[in-house]
Every structure is written in structure tokens, then in C-alpha cells.
Design brief:
This protein is mostly beta strands and 103 residues long. It has one helix and six strands, in the order αββββββ. A hairpin with a 2-residue loop joins strand 3 and strand 4. The model has no long low-confidence stretch (mean pLDDT 83).
């Protein structure tokens, strides 16, 4: 069973990582507005990002990557979960990972 994380939980996690203010790192980007950047090649993977997705009418937050693969001259772009499996759920938003903790 997957755990649903609230905005408050995410903000607390980011604050524990040493972020000054959660607003600096918790700006969700709609996939309708922009997707993570990929190099212009047939095989590319984005940096790991935080994703929000909907599955069976429940919303989840996890880590994932946006990937591009070209097979038989057909270019496919899709989301993969933190284990590298194709994510069949609908990803609605994403955000870059926060900066590392301050020393």
C-alpha cells in the first residue's frame, strides 16, 4: 500500500533537509505547462524529480524520471517511477529536488 503525502508533510521533510523556506523548493510545475528538460537525443533521462500523480482517484507524491526512448524510429516519452518501472498513473505535477543540506 502506498502512502499519501500531504503538502505539510513534504514541507516538513524539506525543512528537515535544511531548506530555508519551503516556498523556495515546493513550487509544483504542471506537466501541461512544462516537462523536465531532456537532452536532444534518442535516449535521454531527466534528473530525478519529485512527482505528483493520480491513481485510482487518489493522489500520491514520489520520486521519478522523465525518459525518452526511440524504438524503430518511434520516439516515446514517458514517466518512470523511482524503481525505473513505467508509471502508468497520470502524472499531474513535478518539481526539482531540493538543494542538498547546508553544512
Amino acid at each position: 500500500m502506498k502512502q499519501v503525502l500531504t503538502d505539510e508533510t513534504i514541507n516538513a521533510m524539506l525543512m528537515a533537509l535544511g531548506q530555508d523556506t519551503p516556498e523556495e523548493t515546493t513550487t509544483w510545475i504542471s506537466v501541461k505547462d512544462r516537462l523536465p528538460e531532456l537532452p536532444d537525443s534518442d535516449y535521454a533521462t531527466s534528473d530525478t524529480v519529485i512527482i505528483a500523480y493520480t491513481d485510482e482517484d487518489r493522489q500520491y507524491v514520489s520520486f521519478g524520471n522523465y525518459k525518452r526512448r526511440t524504438v524503430r524510429d518511434v520516439r516515446k516519452e514517458r514517466w518512470k517511477d523511482r524503481f525505473g518501472r513505467i508509471l502508468r498513473a497520470e502524472v499531474t505535477h513535478w518539481m526539482p529536488l531540493p538543494k542538498p543540506p547546508k553544512k
